[in-house]
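User: Show me a protein chain along with its predicted structure.
Assistant: Here is one chain, sequence first, then structure tokens.
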Amino acid sequence: MSLPLRLGWWLLGVAYALAGWNHFRDPGFYLPMMPPFLPSHRELVELSGAAEAGLGLGALALGHDARLRRAIAWGVVGLLVAIFPANLYVAFENVALGGAEQGLGVWNWVRLPFQALFVAWAWIYTRRLAGDERR
């Protein structure tokens, strides 16, 4: 794997590990994002945090193995797809986050396409990369 891809993988691992940890450090930030039709908001915030932290730590610890790296990358893609309804809810309802009195309005919509970029970032690693052992 090339140096830029290795750095991207390392950054992905750090970002998800820290984001997952933040779900436990400050769950109140994430609770307003939960669409009302979903049950057990606190538990879902914790579950998504555990998934993010686990995938991030897995990326950092196990990413040298091509098969595990691909599985972890698919896990990140799946997680991003699973949490996208919460991002849509924030945009449609202009949900205030982080103790703000009002939502970010149009900026909630501007951030939605970035989710596709995050999916693409992880998806790159779902494929065989130069230097991977053939299995």
